[in-house]
Design a protein that fits this description.
The chain is an alpha+beta fold. It has 2 domains: about 25-195 and about 225-250 and about 255-525, 4-Layer Sandwich (Glutamine Phosphoribosylpyrophosphate, subunit 1, domain 1); about 530-565 and about 575-660, Penicillin amidase (Acylase) alpha subunit, N-terminal domain (Orthogonal Bundle). It has 24 helices and 29 strands. A hairpin with a 6-residue loop joins strand 11 (about 320) and strand 12. About 55% of the residues are buried. The model is unreliable at about 205-225 (pLDDT under 50).
């Protein structure tokens, strides 16, 4: 019996391996115009060589489906609100939100409005995906077997759903408004203004981090990642480079999982040459370079959303109040199929401002009165989105000027885009930003929709968005910071990430006598120095002076370690563990009592906020040091000391009484769980690829630990999913790496094989070798 079980297990494993793609030989496929060569290197990175763009897009759809079919299907189901069909009722909340937002219908309408060349590219890509579905042999990828379903044919408009799946979590103003409104019900106006100023600070000194999550105010949305805003990009003029031509670097930060968001590829045709990060589901290169131009993205954190409070019209069911009298809701019924359960019927109501989100529980209790509804105004939901056309034009841009012109069609999400050709560098905050009649609370709270006082009057003209070409100092850099130039008047955003990372980029590129190289760019991307620790620790350490305090050996040793620290969040050092535990406990002591159940929604690694409140010029900030539960008035020194003592005690119980052994790498581990199997016992261990990593929330080598689990643990959940470095003197030598691997199949050798390279700061160039196989796609038929 044991032998039979072993044979059955071995047979099952061998059968599952038939789900891996064919990477060598020849395959005949209908729909091709000519033969296409696909060379894969040892990491599975393909170089696609085709005689036409049609065939190149076809081949890209084919290889995406070979390696990431489940991820592609999951993404389109997520955005279309169809997860419940395969996951059951656990996905109903997410499906309801997506149906209210209407992404599927919008994708179909936007596809029909696109220019013919863009629709042709989407059609060729879909044909390639479907050619794989029609000709594949063997087992389906493991996720389909586990969920017992088969993917449907790919429609050209399905590719546009990827954009919506990315745009929603990268557009966070509505969640900020809901959270701030919930905080307003708990805090005094003065306390709220102290914690979260209505207006952003002056240009260059924004100091509020981004909330880690907003579930307490908005409801559970577990299939969507709760991502803090973070990415880095910069471009350096040729006068500062060793090659004499511009250098560009980009590392967008997202949640870390397997498979990752990005898929490396090189495409060569007589009219199109691109290389870099593609997105499974989409035929266009998202991040990278073409034959003449390189580019990179970060999120602008633009305010392109508002929550409008709407009132029903008394005595007129189906109507709501407007400045011009009652108007009827625009309604539609959405049928949501639920696996193993009856169909769910959802009636969606829309107002002149946007869809009613409070009908599905979003934000109602947090911000609206019983007789009010909450509508989401979002510039992205306006018809006629041109972002796919923008990507097509960016991929085809012949120079920096043509690339800049392509950005005029970039709508959503709003992004900071740097770009360069051999002669010029540039930056633009591209996308749709609404213009408001007035700014109540600087657009940081929901507004009354029935008065019309806060309505939008249009969109900010593209030429009024922050932008720059060939600056005198030869450097353009963004890191989710305030990108408004001095004196900038239009309302762009109310919150930006702290300037820690962008200031560090500028610091590392500030040597006037140095000519920088691609190696320097890669080293900067892997920089682990914590600007937050460098700013805070010299102010905090003197506050630990207390001659009357009992000090354990561990406490003294930990303080001595911090006193000699170089502020690097390196995995072999103990200081990052000590400092992070201290800051997590200090944050709880300062804010948790006042914020209550909203603390976990507000708190992330907001060390710039701690710095401002404890050491800024406004003495009102020091009031956060007092514990309102106790009759005594606590001072900040006491809170700092008690937080440090608790951190040392906690770490000693977990790691022993020798602080030098409390290395960051013992607790700062990126789990890299599989997008589906991470939730399944045993399979989570078999498919996870945990990696010891360095970095922190504020370092350029982004290593954001989960604040919700600190100080007990510091799992690394957010970081650079892609890194790219480009020397415009030789774009063929561009350097790339992704967090994970090319394949989404856990049985593939390319499932997570790039992780050591990613962790250690290594890169690869896509040179078109065939160490991983050479596959020829041939037209089928006569």
């Amino acid at each position: 019996m044991l032998l039979l079980l072993l044979l059955a297990g071995a047979g099952g494993f061998l059968w599952l391996r038939t789900s891996l793609p064919q990477t060598a030989g020849e395959v005949s496929l209908p729909g091709l115009q000519a033969s296409v060569e696909i060379r894969r290197d040892r990491y599975g990175v393909p170089t696609i060589r085709a005689e036409s763009e049609h065939d190149a897009y076809f081949a890209l759809g084919f290889v995406h489906a070979q390696d990431r079919l489940f991820q592609m299907d999951f993404t389109r189901r997520l955005a279309a609100g169809r997860l419940s069909e395969v996951l059951g009722e656990r996905a109903l909340d997410t499906d309801r939100l997506m149906r209210v937002l209407g992404f599927d219908a919008r994708a179909k309408a936007d596809y029909e409005a696109l220019p013919e060349p863009v629709r042709a590219a989407l059609g060729a890509y879909a044909a390639g995906v479907n050619a794989f579905l029609a000709t594949r042999r063997g087992a389906w990828p493991p996720e389909f077997l586990a969920l017992r379903y088969r993917p449907e044919p790919w429609q050209p408009s399905d590719s546009l759903l990827w954009g919506w799946a990315m745009t929603l979590p990268l557009s966070s103003n509505w969640t900020d408004e809901a959270l701030r409104a919930a905080l307003a019900r708990k805090l005094s106006p003065a306390a709220l203004e102290s914690l979260w100023p209505t207006q952003p600070p002056p240009v260059g000194s924004a100091d509020l981090g981004t909330p880690a999550s907003w579930q307490a105010a908005m409801g559970d949305l577990s299939p969507l990642p709760a991502m803090p805003g973070a990415s880095n990009n910069w471009v350096l003029a040729g006068k500062h480079s060793a090659s004499g031509e511009p250098l560009l670097a980009n590392d967008p930060h997202l949640d870390l999982s397997l498979p990752g968001y990005w898929y490396l590829v090189r495409i060569e045709t007589p009219t199109l040459q691109v290389a870099g990060a593609s997105a499974p589901s989409v035929p266009f290169l998202i991040l990278g370079h073409n034959a003449k131009v390189a580019w990179g993205f970060t999120t602008t954190m633009a305010d392109n959303q508002d929550l409008f409070l709407e009132k029903p019209a008394a005595g007129a069911p189906g109507f709501y109040l407007t400045p011009d009298g009652p108007k009827p809701f625009v309604t539609r019924d959405e049928v949501i199929k639920v696996r193993g359960e009856p169909d769910q019927i959802l009636t969606v109501r829309e107002t002149r401002h946007g869809p009613i989100i409070s009908d599905i529980g979003r934000a109602k209790a947090a911000i609206a009165e019983p007789d009010e509804m909450v509508a989401l105004g979002w510039a992205c939901l306006a018809p006629g989105a041109q972002t796919p056309e923008a990507f097509w034009a960016m991929n085809h841009a012949s120079d920096a000027a043509a690339f800049r012109a392509a950005l005029d069609r970039f709508d959503c999400p709003v992004q900071n885009i740097v770009y360069a050709d051999q002669d010029h560098i540039g930056f633009m905050a591209a996308g749709r930003v609404p213009v408001r009649k007035r700014l109540d609370h600087f657009s940081q709270l929901p507004v009354e929709g029935w008065t019309g006082d806060n309505d939008w009057t249009g969109l900010l003209p593209r030429n009024e968005l922050p932008q720059s070409v060939d600056p005198v100092d030869g450097l353009l850099a963004t890191a989710n910071n305030d990108v408004r130039p001095p004196g900038y008047a239009p309302h762009l955003a109310a919150r930006f990430d702290s300037p820690y990372r962008v200031n560090r980029i500028r610091e590392l590129l500030s040597d006037p006598g140095r000519l920088y190289t691609p190696d320097d760019m890669t080293a900067i991307q892997m920089d682990m120095l914590s600007p937050a620790a460098r700013a805070l620790l010299p102010k905090l350490l003197p506050m630990l002076e207390d001659p009357g305090a009992n000090r354990s050996i561990a406490t003294l040793a930990a303080r001595n370690l911090l006193s000699s620290w170089d502020y690097r969040m390196a995995p072999d050092l103990a200081q990052p563990t000590i400092f992070s535990a201290w800051m997590a406990i200090l944050s709880q002591k300062l804010f948790k009592d006042e914020l209550g159940d909203l603390y976990s929604s507000w708190a992330w690694w907001n060390m710039a906020t701690i710095d401002r409140l404890l050491f800024g010029p406004d003495p009102a900030g020091r009031q956060w040091c007092d514990d309102p539960v106790t009759p005594a008035v606590e001072g900040c020194e006491g809170v700092v000391r008690s937080s440090f003592a608790e951190a040392i005690d906690l770490l000693a119980k977990r790691f022993g009484d020798k602080p030098a052994e409390w290395r960051w790498g013992r607790t700062h581990i990126a789990p890299f769980g599989h997008m589906l199997f991470r939730y399944v016992p045993v399979l989570s261990d078999l498919t996870g690829r945990p990696m010891v990593t360095g970095g922190a929330d504020d370092t350029l080598d982004r290593g954001s630990p989960d604040m919700r689990r600190a100080p007990e643990a510091f799992p690394h959940l957010h970081g650079a999913g892609f890194r790219g470095v480009y020397d415009l003197a030789d774009l063929d030598a561009a350097r790339f790496v992704i967090a994970g691997g090319q394949s989404g199949n856990p049985l593939s050798p390319n499932y997570g094989d790039l992780l050591p390279l990613w962790r250690d700061g290594g890169t690869l160039s896509i040179v078109g070798d065939d160490a991983g196989g050479r596959l020829i796609l041939k037209p089928a038929g006569p």
